Amino acid sequence: MKPDFKPKRPLAQYNKALAAISVIALAACSSQPPAPDWALVAESATQKATAAYLQGQQRVEALQWQKARDAVASTGQPALAAKVELMRCAAQVASLEWNDCPAYEALAQDAAQEEQAYARYLQGRSQPADIELLPEAQRAAARQLGNVAGVAPVEIKDPLSSLVAAGVQLRSGRASPALLQQAVDTASAQGWRRPLMAWLLMQLKSEQQAGNSDKAAQLERRLKLLQAPVRN
């Protein structure tokens, strides 16, 4: 996907943790003008909103998402607003909060092909032609969805991208003990309370159904620790 503008000096990719889509690419040559204020505000707010969501800080999350929306709204470009909403949807999929992403759908008709393909992927209805339009981190996972024999979780270095891929696989009916464990380990290592609780609950259900009482009891202790109040 081509960047929407280029600032004066290289910056981190918009919401590097997501790596799933590039809302605004901030890399460029020194001879070009600096990034406009709205883009810098949107970048910062989106990163903070995503982090707050994953950590279960609802008040901060809501405030920062609105700040990001307001920033891109100042451009009058629905395509940019659609990208912001899709990033929020990706974090929700990583946390097993599945919905039809209504805020994105309201803007979908103006979204670029890459975003439309990514939205279908997040909803578990990706098409073969979508794969090359997806962020690179998600392409192997998307290919695996069409391979009945492929049940092992895809190895993705970026933690949030890994959880997004796991969420899509689970949503597509491709659950496995290895997938659940990988997602739990990833969320735990990052201290991401919201996705960790969701994946632990899924893993607990799986262990209970398998009759593994010792493992289930251990998971219940982990969940109890997570249920401590979060201070925003």
TrEMBL record:
Specify the signal sequence span.
1-27
UniProt KW keywords: Signal
Name of this protein: Lipoprotein
Say which species the protein is native to.
Comamonas suwonensis
